[in-house]
Amino acid sequence: MTLIFPDGPWRVAPLDEVAARLPATATRHPETADRPPASSALTVVAVDGHGGSGKSTLATALATRVPRTAIVHTDDIAWHHSIFGWSDLLVDGVLAPARRGEEVTFRPPAWQRRGREGAVHVPAGTRTLVVEGTGAGRLELAPFTDLVIFLDADLDEGRRRCLARDGDTPQARAFWDGWMAEETPFMAEHRPWERAGLILCGTSDLPHDPTREAVVRD
Protein backbone atom coordinates (compact mmCIF):
# COMPACT_ATOMS: atom_id res chain seq x y z
CA MET A 1 0.00 0.00 0.00
CA THR A 2 1.14 3.54 -0.69
CA LEU A 3 -1.34 5.37 1.52
CA ILE A 4 -0.16 8.60 3.10
CA PHE A 5 -1.99 7.56 6.28
CA PRO A 6 -1.70 3.75 6.25
CA ASP A 7 -2.73 3.40 9.89
CA GLY A 8 -5.65 5.82 9.72
CA PRO A 9 -7.31 5.27 12.06
CA TRP A 10 -10.09 4.48 9.57
CA ARG A 11 -13.76 3.74 10.09
CA VAL A 12 -16.78 3.32 7.85
CA ALA A 13 -19.28 6.19 8.14
CA PRO A 14 -22.54 6.93 6.33
CA LEU A 15 -22.17 9.53 3.61
CA ASP A 16 -25.04 11.38 5.28
CA GLU A 17 -22.69 11.89 8.24
CA VAL A 18 -19.93 13.16 5.97
CA ALA A 19 -22.31 15.56 4.22
CA ALA A 20 -23.62 16.84 7.56
CA ARG A 21 -20.08 17.68 8.64
CA LEU A 22 -19.35 19.98 5.69
CA PRO A 23 -20.49 23.34 7.13
CA ALA A 24 -19.12 22.51 10.57
CA THR A 25 -15.74 21.45 9.16
CA ALA A 26 -15.29 24.39 6.79
CA THR A 27 -12.63 26.62 8.27
CA ARG A 28 -10.37 29.50 7.39
CA HIS A 29 -6.84 28.23 7.51
CA PRO A 30 -4.21 30.94 8.10
CA GLU A 31 -3.32 31.03 4.40
CA THR A 32 -6.96 31.74 3.48
CA ALA A 33 -7.52 34.65 5.86
CA ASP A 34 -7.34 37.14 2.97
CA ARG A 35 -9.83 35.29 0.78
CA PRO A 36 -12.07 37.52 -1.32
CA PRO A 37 -15.29 38.32 0.56
CA ALA A 38 -18.31 36.39 -0.62
CA SER A 39 -21.55 38.25 -1.22
CA SER A 40 -23.53 35.05 -0.70
CA ALA A 41 -23.40 32.17 1.77
CA LEU A 42 -21.38 30.07 -0.66
CA THR A 43 -19.19 27.29 0.69
CA VAL A 44 -16.48 26.06 -1.69
CA VAL A 45 -15.41 22.45 -1.07
CA ALA A 46 -12.35 21.02 -2.83
CA VAL A 47 -12.35 17.23 -3.28
CA ASP A 48 -8.75 16.30 -4.00
CA GLY A 49 -6.80 13.06 -4.28
CA HIS A 50 -4.75 10.90 -6.61
CA GLY A 51 -6.13 9.61 -9.89
CA GLY A 52 -8.62 6.78 -9.36
CA SER A 53 -9.24 7.59 -5.70
CA GLY A 54 -13.01 8.07 -6.07
CA LYS A 55 -13.27 11.86 -6.18
CA SER A 56 -16.05 12.01 -8.77
CA THR A 57 -18.08 9.36 -6.96
CA LEU A 58 -17.76 11.24 -3.68
CA ALA A 59 -18.61 14.62 -5.24
CA THR A 60 -21.75 13.19 -6.85
CA ALA A 61 -22.80 11.47 -3.65
CA LEU A 62 -22.39 14.68 -1.64
CA ALA A 63 -24.31 16.72 -4.21
CA THR A 64 -27.30 14.40 -3.84
CA ARG A 65 -27.28 14.99 -0.08
CA VAL A 66 -26.59 18.71 0.16
CA PRO A 67 -29.25 20.99 -1.36
CA ARG A 68 -28.28 23.64 -3.91
CA THR A 69 -24.90 22.08 -4.67
CA ALA A 70 -23.04 22.46 -7.96
CA ILE A 71 -20.03 20.42 -9.08
CA VAL A 72 -17.11 21.69 -11.17
CA HIS A 73 -14.64 19.11 -12.49
CA THR A 74 -11.04 20.26 -12.85
CA ASP A 75 -10.72 17.91 -15.85
CA ASP A 76 -13.17 20.19 -17.66
CA ILE A 77 -11.06 23.25 -16.86
CA ALA A 78 -7.86 21.44 -17.89
CA TRP A 79 -9.31 19.91 -21.09
CA HIS A 80 -6.74 20.31 -23.90
CA HIS A 81 -5.02 23.00 -21.83
CA SER A 82 -2.62 21.58 -19.23
CA ILE A 83 -2.58 18.75 -16.72
CA PHE A 84 -1.98 21.11 -13.79
CA GLY A 85 -1.46 24.60 -15.23
CA TRP A 86 -5.10 25.66 -14.98
CA SER A 87 -5.49 27.40 -11.60
CA ASP A 88 -5.83 30.86 -13.17
CA LEU A 89 -8.66 29.65 -15.42
CA LEU A 90 -10.54 28.16 -12.48
CA VAL A 91 -10.10 31.26 -10.31
CA ASP A 92 -10.94 33.87 -12.94
CA GLY A 93 -13.61 31.89 -14.75
CA VAL A 94 -15.40 30.16 -11.87
CA LEU A 95 -14.34 30.73 -8.27
CA ALA A 96 -14.03 34.52 -8.15
CA PRO A 97 -17.43 35.20 -9.76
CA ALA A 98 -19.11 32.40 -7.80
CA ARG A 99 -17.86 33.85 -4.53
CA ARG A 100 -19.32 37.19 -5.56
CA GLY A 101 -22.68 35.46 -5.82
CA GLU A 102 -22.79 35.57 -9.61
CA GLU A 103 -24.13 32.86 -11.87
CA VAL A 104 -21.23 31.27 -13.75
CA THR A 105 -21.26 30.17 -17.37
CA PHE A 106 -17.63 29.67 -18.35
CA ARG A 107 -16.20 28.32 -21.57
CA PRO A 108 -12.45 27.73 -21.14
CA PRO A 109 -10.31 28.87 -24.08
CA ALA A 110 -9.69 25.32 -25.34
CA TRP A 111 -13.45 24.71 -25.48
CA GLN A 112 -13.81 27.70 -27.76
CA ARG A 113 -10.83 26.79 -29.97
CA ARG A 114 -11.93 23.18 -30.40
CA GLY A 115 -15.65 23.75 -30.65
CA ARG A 116 -16.63 21.85 -27.52
CA GLU A 117 -20.29 22.50 -26.77
CA GLY A 118 -21.70 23.60 -23.43
CA ALA A 119 -20.04 25.39 -20.56
CA VAL A 120 -18.91 25.03 -16.96
CA HIS A 121 -22.01 26.18 -15.10
CA VAL A 122 -22.66 27.25 -11.52
CA PRO A 123 -26.32 28.26 -11.16
CA ALA A 124 -27.42 31.37 -9.32
CA GLY A 125 -28.36 30.54 -5.75
CA THR A 126 -25.77 27.77 -5.37
CA ARG A 127 -24.93 27.35 -1.69
CA THR A 128 -22.22 24.67 -1.94
CA LEU A 129 -19.74 24.49 -4.80
CA VAL A 130 -17.78 21.23 -4.99
CA VAL A 131 -14.59 21.50 -7.05
CA GLU A 132 -13.55 17.94 -7.82
CA GLY A 133 -10.27 16.69 -9.26
CA THR A 134 -6.60 16.13 -8.61
CA GLY A 135 -5.26 19.56 -7.70
CA ALA A 136 -8.56 20.96 -6.40
CA GLY A 137 -6.90 21.53 -3.04
CA ARG A 138 -3.76 23.15 -4.47
CA LEU A 139 -2.07 26.09 -2.78
CA GLU A 140 -3.18 28.73 -5.31
CA LEU A 141 -6.85 27.94 -4.64
CA ALA A 142 -6.63 28.24 -0.85
CA PRO A 143 -7.92 31.84 -0.76
CA PHE A 144 -11.08 30.70 -2.57
CA THR A 145 -11.67 27.40 -0.76
CA ASP A 146 -13.46 26.84 2.54
CA LEU A 147 -12.85 23.11 2.95
CA VAL A 148 -10.48 20.54 1.45
CA ILE A 149 -11.52 16.90 1.45
CA PHE A 150 -8.58 14.64 0.62
CA LEU A 151 -9.04 11.07 -0.59
CA ASP A 152 -6.05 8.98 0.37
CA ALA A 153 -5.48 6.09 -2.03
CA ASP A 154 -3.22 3.25 -3.01
CA LEU A 155 -1.58 4.30 -6.27
CA ASP A 156 -1.56 0.82 -7.79
CA GLU A 157 -5.29 0.46 -7.17
CA GLY A 158 -5.88 3.92 -8.58
CA ARG A 159 -4.02 2.97 -11.74
CA ARG A 160 -6.02 -0.24 -12.09
CA ARG A 161 -9.28 1.68 -11.75
CA CYS A 162 -8.32 4.29 -14.31
CA LEU A 163 -7.26 1.69 -16.85
CA ALA A 164 -10.45 -0.27 -16.25
CA ARG A 165 -12.45 2.91 -16.83
CA ASP A 166 -10.55 4.18 -19.89
CA GLY A 167 -9.58 0.84 -21.42
CA ASP A 168 -6.33 -0.99 -20.76
CA THR A 169 -4.67 -0.05 -24.04
CA PRO A 170 -1.10 1.04 -24.83
CA GLN A 171 -2.41 4.57 -25.33
CA ALA A 172 -4.16 4.57 -21.95
CA ARG A 173 -1.07 3.19 -20.23
CA ALA A 174 1.10 5.86 -21.86
CA PHE A 175 -1.33 8.57 -20.76
CA TRP A 176 -1.34 7.23 -17.20
CA ASP A 177 2.47 7.15 -17.09
CA GLY A 178 2.61 10.74 -18.35
CA TRP A 179 -0.03 11.80 -15.85
CA MET A 180 1.83 10.28 -12.90
CA ALA A 181 5.09 11.85 -14.05
CA GLU A 182 3.41 15.23 -13.44
CA GLU A 183 1.10 14.28 -10.57
CA THR A 184 3.82 12.91 -8.28
CA PRO A 185 5.92 16.11 -8.00
CA PHE A 186 2.78 18.27 -8.06
CA MET A 187 1.29 16.49 -5.05
CA ALA A 188 4.63 16.54 -3.25
CA GLU A 189 4.74 20.31 -3.66
CA HIS A 190 1.11 21.15 -2.79
CA ARG A 191 0.42 18.48 -0.12
CA PRO A 192 -3.35 19.06 0.07
CA TRP A 193 -3.76 16.53 2.89
CA GLU A 194 -2.04 19.02 5.19
CA ARG A 195 -4.89 21.52 4.66
CA ALA A 196 -7.70 18.97 4.63
CA GLY A 197 -10.57 19.30 7.07
CA LEU A 198 -11.70 15.78 6.17
CA ILE A 199 -9.56 12.84 5.06
CA LEU A 200 -11.17 9.77 3.51
CA CYS A 201 -9.70 6.57 2.08
CA GLY A 202 -10.74 5.95 -1.50
CA THR A 203 -9.20 2.47 -1.82
CA SER A 204 -9.88 0.96 1.58
CA ASP A 205 -10.20 -2.79 2.16
CA LEU A 206 -12.88 -2.14 4.77
CA PRO A 207 -16.21 -3.47 3.45
CA HIS A 208 -18.47 -0.56 2.48
CA ASP A 209 -20.78 0.72 -0.24
CA PRO A 210 -19.21 3.84 -1.84
CA THR A 211 -22.65 5.09 -2.91
CA ARG A 212 -23.82 5.19 0.73
CA GLU A 213 -20.70 5.07 2.89
CA ALA A 214 -17.17 6.46 3.15
CA VAL A 215 -14.06 5.38 4.99
CA VAL A 216 -13.14 8.29 7.24
CA ARG A 217 -9.94 9.09 9.08
CA ASP A 218 -10.73 10.22 12.64
Keyphrases for this structure?
9 strands, 7-stranded mixed β-sheet, P-loop_NTPase, two-stranded antiparallel sheet, Rossmann fold, alpha/beta, 8 helices, Uridine kinase, 218 residues
In a nutshell, what does this entry contain?
35% of the residues lie in helices and 20% in strands. It has helices spanning 15-20, 22-25, 55-63, 74-78, 87-99, 109-114, 155-166, 170-190; strands at 10-14, 43-49, 69-73, 104-106, 120-122, 128-132, 147-152, 198-201, 213-217.
Provide structural commentary:
About 3% of the residues have low confidence. The chain has one domain: 3-Layer(aba) Sandwich (Rossmann fold). The protein is globular and about 40 Å long. It is of the alpha/beta class and 218 residues long. This is Uridine kinase. It comes from Kineosporia succinea.
Per the CATH scheme, the topology name is Rossmann fold
Helical content, roughly?
A: 25-40%
Q: From the alpha-carbon coordinates, what is the Rg to the nearest angstrom?
A: 17 Å
Question: How many distinct folded domains?
Answer: 1
* CATH architecture classification: 3-Layer(aba) Sandwich
User: What oligomeric assembly is this protein in?
Assistant: single chain
Low-confidence stretches: 28-33
How many helical stretches?
A: 8
Secondary-structure blueprint:
Elements: E1 10-14, H1 15-20, H2 22-25, E2 43-49, H3 55-63, E3 69-73, H4 74-78, H5 87-99, E4 104-106, H6 109-114, E5 120-122, E6 128-132, E7 147-152, H7 155-166, H8 170-190, E8 198-201, E9 213-217
Parallel strand pairs: 2-6, 2-7, 3-6, 7-8
Antiparallel strand pairs: 1-9, 4-5, 8-9
